[in-house]
Amino acid sequence: MKAQPVTLEALVDDLISRIDRLDPAAAPRPRIGVDGPATAFGDDLAARLVAALHDRGTFALHVPADGFLRARSLRLERGRTNPDAFYEDWLDLRALTREVLAPAGPGGTGRVLPSLRDPVTDRATRAGYVEIPDGGAVVVSGTLLLGAGLDFDLAVHLTQSDAALTRRTPPDQQWQLPAYTRYRDEVMPEYLADLVVRADDPRHPALVVDD
């Protein structure tokens, strides 16, 4: 495999063309997962994709996965700096499926909850439900999303080298690095994603393609 430099605009255009090719029967409201470490540009890419969809008249909703973290008492039960807990316990997979992915999927109601819990205050956000029309899209961005049973119709994985990830991770978050190594080795997300993007420098991404 090799990496080809790509602009963010071209990357968004590529994603939109892939969304357009999805089967409406299998993906009535396309669910796009943007997976990558916090040091990549996942939230920014998701926001750009939603904005581009809006510009062409398609309803789209950005759902940051951080809005579906488990309660602090549960996710920190094994300590505040436990990488295995970060990998296994932080994200409430059931809530994200129940409130976002299942309603947006085939046979779903289309009523999606944008967030459940504020990651800073650890309190319920009291967000209201949003009606996703047929053809509308839901874009979920976050870390360690793939290989956990979450149903995405299109998945993007943003990857960084160990050196870039270490360099860009703030000192107080370095304890998370073993979780990313475990994720890479156990899940191999680059083989689960529909699109893989190198983001060692998020300002200059590169699309990973077959030789």
UniProtKB/TrEMBL annotation:
GO terms for molecular function: kinase activity. Keywords: Kinase, Transferase. InterPro entries: P-loop_NTPase. This is Uridine kinase. It comes from Dactylosporangium fulvum.
